[in-house]
Design brief:
The protein is an alpha/beta fold. It has a single domain, classed as P-loop containing nucleotide triphosphate hydrolases (Rossmann fold, 3-Layer(aba) Sandwich). Helix content is about 45%, strand content about 15%. It is built from eleven helices and ten strands. The strands form three sheets. The chain has a six-stranded mixed sheet, with helices on both faces. The protein has a two-stranded antiparallel ribbon with strand order 3-6. Strand 4 (about 155) and strand 5 form a beta hairpin. Helix 2 (about 40-60) packs across helix 3 and helix 9 crosses helix 10. The longest helix has 23 residues, at about 10-30.
Length: about 325
């Protein structure tokens, strides 16, 4: 079992009891996320998800707590967030809101303006500089204030590459206990400027030869994004084994998108398009793999088979 408390701790008994009660919910969540229901996956409810959720619940004391969840594309952060959210609600009676940094993307028009003003690569959503950070700070501050006033949280529609209309936004009412903020760059640190001088992939060599784009992105991470990430109370990091595995897992995500679309074939990327897309995120992803294991409160090390093989809890 993931030992976030002593073996004789009273919550160990609680975990066993919760496992039996929450197993039907857990199996439904595995089905929702198209995860094969193997004995090993069944066992992970008790060995990983319940202890992790228990640890998250313990972080909430008298005021709302923000838990950041960082992981590369395809690492499983959205699945982890959804499972932990439901366990916290059903098993630990916590009031939980989950947010994705993806839903803070600037509108298409705003990104096209950035592309005109600063660099053409900023038309593509994803990297620091393409999110409405001020909106994110306002949302987290509102949720952390334990206000009972409703707040509207944006939804980004990736099918149209634009923010959904406000009528489709989430509406959250009443105070919450736990806020889960997930995203590939959540809590990431900026690189040393000297490390930006040489391109690291084909995208940077061919479309950012003078380094203007990567320097802008890095500066955004060092400045504009700090007020948002400083609101994170605890950070969980999913540590992928390599960039090649990130590409493989992101390709699997596309396949799942096809398989889950019953009525029409979605507009999905080929493996080559995925490789090109990952290049936008490669520099920060590599830097996060180097730096976040020493910064995160919990690091979930993932093996080549896409399973959590090691858990490191850092006591502060």
């Amino acid at each position: 079992m993931l030992m976030l408390f002593n073996a004789d701790h009273p919550q160990t008994t609680q975990i066993h009891a919760l496992c039996e009660r929450l197993m039907p919910l857990y199996l439904d969540l595995l089905k929702k996320h198209q995860i094969e229901q193997t004995p090993a996956m069944h066992n992970m409810l008790e060995t990983l998800y319940l202890p992790l959720s228990s640890w998250v619940a313990q972080q909430h004391q008298s005021s709302p707590v923000v838990i950041g969840i960082n992981g590369a594309q395809g690492s499983g952060k959205s699945t982890l967030t959804d499972i932990v959210k439901h366990i916290l609600i059903e098993g630990f009676q916590q009031r939980v809101v989950s947010l994705s940094i993806d839903d803070l993307y600037l509108t298409q028009a705003e990104r096209l303006q950035l592309a005109d003003d600063i660099h053409p690569l900023l038309a593509t959503r994803g990297v620091p500089g393409t999110h409405d950070v001020e909106l994110g700070v306002d949302i987290l501050n509102h949720l952390k204030s334990a206000s009972d006033k409703p707040i509207h949280i944006p939804v980004f529609n990736k099918a149209i590459d634009d923010r959904a209309s406000e009528s489709d936004w989430q509406s959250i009412s009443g105070p919450v206990d736990i806020i889960l903020l997930e995203g590939w760059c959540v809590g990431a640190r900026a690189c040393n400027v000297s490390a930006l001088s040489e391109p690291i992939n084909e995208l940077e060599r061919n479309q950012d030869s003078d380094g203007a784009w990567r320097n802008y992105v890095n500066k955004q991470l060092a400045t504009t994004y700090r007020p948002l990430f400083n609101l994170i109370d605890r950070l969980i990091f999913l540590e992928a084994p390599s960039i090649e595995k990130v590409i493989e897992w992101r390709t699997l995500q596309e396949k799942k998108l096809v398989d889950s679309s019953a009525n029409k074939k979605p507009d999905v990327m080929s493996e080559q398009q995925i490789r090109q897309f990952i290049m936008y995120f490669e520099r920060i992803t590599r830097h996060s793999l180097e730096t976040l294991p020493a910064i995160a409160d919990i690091t979930l090390k993932i093996n080549d088979e896409h399973q959590v093989c090691e858990v490191n809890l850092h006591t502060r």
